[in-house]
Specification:
Helix content is 25%, strand content 22%. With 360 residues, it is α+β, with helices and mostly antiparallel strands.
Length: 360
């Protein structure tokens, strides 16, 4: 049993446990499409934001604006999208919607004279549905931000093969969207949403256990040896049939209600990558564009001497990101079509007693 100093998940175990944060998903339509966009919408007035990019092949937009040395203080939304660099067009739809709401950086005397700064990161999923040109655009971004705005405060977040995770692949398995949260002993909420599309593996090849399950405080669930061996054989068959090299990227948003400075938010973005390294091996490769954004809403003030509280937030950021990766892989559902067959973890390891727990 956890003691009083052990962080526990929030009520939803989701990014939306950070008050005011909303999440919306949209999928690219069409029979040959397997891609989409996810938007994380900040509370009115925006949130302090930061980013840390560690992959060797990133596709991003407006990340320089988040440098603590630069002008922009707060942002209203973050876009996570499929479609590789083409999919960054989704941010234009979010930007247009924010302008209509009068949300953005004030640049003139009128209430609507704003420039919304919309940081975005993309992952590679081109052609996985069969149609190379079926990828997110401005309309996909608008649909996702409208979906986020339509949710109530504290709404559950749909996980699995949705939004930016629609065409995601985690190593040789189907990837997707996962989210998790923790409440620290100091009363701060820290949460993460991950879109898992890694070149590295999320599964221990010796056992079939998800890497992110190690060190969570609960014993990892081991598939039966025969099940694991059958899964390895099936994945090898698909790998030989598919061919081609891995072009991937795991992208994430970590949010907290703590009143972080921009420099502190930057530190949290960096340490959160430790959670990604626990759950994906290897990570941060040349063909990954691994990127972690941070949003700090500022509703929970830090104590006068904040070091201990900040250390707890930094540790929680890594923990929730690792758990979000695990939940994404568990919740993903397999896909089969002209672009290939992508089996999910639950397809291959259905004998695990917990394989259904985090399904959407």
């Amino acid at each position: 049993m956890p003691d009083d100093e052990t962080p526990l998940p929030g009520p939803l175990d989701a990014l939306t446990d950070v008050a005011g944060i909303r999440v919306g998903h949209a999928r690219v339509p069409g029979d040959g499409a397997l891609s989409g966009t996810t938007v994380v919408l900040a509370p009115t007035g925006g949130a302090v934001a930061a980013v840390d990019v560690r992959g060797g092949g990133p596709g991003t937009r407006e990340t320089d604006a988040l440098d603590p040395r630069n002008l922009v203080q707060r942002v209203d939304a973050v876009v996570l999208t499929g479609g590789s660099a083409y999919g960054l067009d989704a941010a234009s739809g979010v930007m247009a919607w924010l302008e209509e709401q009068g949300r953005g950086v004030p640049v003139g005397p009128g209430p609507g004279q704003v420039v919304p700064v919309v940081p975005a990161a993309c992952l590679f999923d081109l052609g996985r549905g069969g149609d190379w040109r079926a990828r997110p655009d401005a309309s996909t971004g608008r649909a996702a931000v409208e979906a986020a705005a339509a949710t109530g405060v504290g709404a559950p977040v749909t996980e699995g093969t949705v939004g930016a995770g629609t065409g995601a692949v985690a190593g040789e398995l189907k990837g997707g969207v996962g989210t998790a949260s923790l409440r620290t002993p100091d009363g701060t909420t820290v949460a993460a949403l991950a879109v898992v599309n890694a070149a590295g593996s999320v599964v221990d090849p010796r056992t079939g256990v998800l890497y992110g399950e190690y060190g969570t405080g609960e014993p990892p669930v081991h598939p039966a040896p025969a099940t694991h061996e059958a899964a390895r054989r099936r994945l090898a068959e698909l790998r030989d049939a598919r061919g081609g090299g891995p072009f991937n990227t795991t992208i994430a948003v970590v949010a907290t209600d703590a009143a972080l400075t921009r420099a502190q938010a930057q530190k949290l973005a960096g340490t959160a990558h430790d959670g990604l390294a626990r759950a994906v091996r290897p990570v941060h490769l040349l063909t990954d564009g691994d990127t972690v954004f941070v949003l700090a809403t500022g509703r929970t003030p830090l104590p006068p001497e904040p070091t201990s509280t900040l250390n707890g937030i930094l540790a929680a950021g890594a923990d929730v990101l690792a758990r979000a990766v695990v939940k994404a892989v568990r919740a993903a559902r397999g896909a089969e079509g002209p672009g290939g067959t992508f089996l999910s973890y639950s397809d291959l390891y259905a004998d695990r007693t917990d394989h259904h727990k985090d399904a959407p």
